[in-house]
Amino acid sequence: MDLSNNISGKIIVITGASGGLGETTARHLASKGAHVVLGARREELLKKVADEINADGKGKAVYSKTDVTKKEEVKALVDKAVKEFGKIDVMINNAGLMAIAPLSETKVDEWDQMIDVNIKGVLYGIAAALPIFQKQESGHFINLSSVAGVKVFSPGGTVYSGTKYAVRAISDGLRHEVGGNIRTTTLEPGAIDSELKFGSSHKESSEFVKEFYQQAIPADAIARTIAFVIEQPSDVDVNEIVIRPTKQEF
């Protein structure tokens, strides 16, 4: 079966799309003819990405300034997709924060931020898109967890890992509850070159993370993986993929 055109014309919403994995994925999917709806907090960067995609002429892009910790803004992003294109085919819950520090540092504000972005942000994306998917009787959630959601990232990654384990659990439960015409994929990236590595305010942990990420592979590894799962026929649900550098032991 030729799946090469199974992305063209699809309406794909992406959070965290102003840089890193989200931006790279948006550009890659648009190059295959997708219409992408971009959400992030940095509006000037969103506009730049959307303008360049539209100038390329292969796909289409619109954007909406979106803070995934605010459910009304996530809903507005999804509503914009429906208003502009009439439907949604894929919801990519990509926005994430990795603030690494030992628990003994008690960086409670950063714990709260990671819970709000990494867990509640995904839930808000599900809440916004699920009613539309159910009405359409079709749709595809792609939720970004992490290798740290498979094994606790140590030292300093306990809370981050907790949030990413939660994404896996939520995704698995979602698949059980609404599977059939609605697909759910969880991706667990390892060290991928993105802005995620800059999220730590704890000096020693930040240095450790930057050293760890020297083995990182380019963000287009994730973009190509996302394209692969979207391309599959509607009766194929790719549930979970772990992807990391060949050099990464953890």
From TrEMBL:
Transmembrane segments: none
PROSITE patterns in the record: ADH_SHORT
Domain Ketoreductase, chain residue ranges per copy: 10-195
Organism domain of life: Bacteria
Pfam families: adh_short
Family classification: Belongs to the short-chain dehydrogenases/reductases (SDR) family.
Protein name: SDR family oxidoreductase
Lineage: Bacteria, Pseudomonadati, Bacteroidota, Flavobacteriia, Flavobacteriales
